């Protein structure tokens, strides 16, 4: 049987693309990475994700799948090795629940901190901290979201590790400390040291330069409006 053709359209710094890279790595699936410029979207991206025009897009034997959480589920059903979703239906629902909570509540609230200025930073921190405290409660007594095994919810929420480093370096604020968030801090370490995950984080200095520039550009646009 001919080897399946697998392409991932993405950008090196996208937290959504990273999820797919981590999962492909964990499953040991080979693929070609196509770096996109989201300021100047390629005809390939527009063809394969005409609805959202966003990365990541996975193209499997010519068929495209968009939306990172949908891609993760597709991958788990297609490549059965090292499953990322648990078998038990309730646990599967919980993995999806926490991933959705991450995307719909946590990420926007942390992004508001990142793009705030002056006293607005403190206000934004209140709601971001509340969301992080909910994750702290969920992780209590567990290594990963589903217990001992790293899976879907961990991969979906892995962006927290990067985002915390960026916030701490760029805004010079401590977002997650071991006293207030012992379980979340331990999870961040367990996650970022996990084989396959560890080696696929983008270089920190490159991330810092990219996100510093992005923040300045966002603040400048806001200021000129
Ligand atoms: N919900 C989407 C979000 C993807 C997303 O926002 N991707 C960004 C890069 S981090 C993008 O392609 N932005 C291009 C744009 O908004 O035009 C997913 O989970 O895949």
Which properties best describe this structure?
2 domains; four-stranded mixed beta sheet; Glutaredoxin; 4 strands; 56% helix; 225 residues; binds glutathione; Glutathione S-transferase Yfyf (Class Pi), Chain A, domain 2; alpha+beta
List the helices and strands and how they pair.
Elements: E1 6-10, H1 15-27, E2 32-35, H2 43-48, E3 57-60, E4 63-66, H3 68-78, H4 89-114, H5 119-139, H6 152-157, H7 159-170, H8 182-192, H9 204-224
Parallel strand pairs: 1-2
Antiparallel strand pairs: 1-3, 3-4
Helix pairs in contact: 1-3, 4-5, 5-8, 7-9
The structure holds glutathione.
Glutathione is lined by residues 14, 16, 38, 53-56, 67-69.
Give a summary of the structure in a few sentences:
By secondary structure, the protein is of the alpha+beta class.
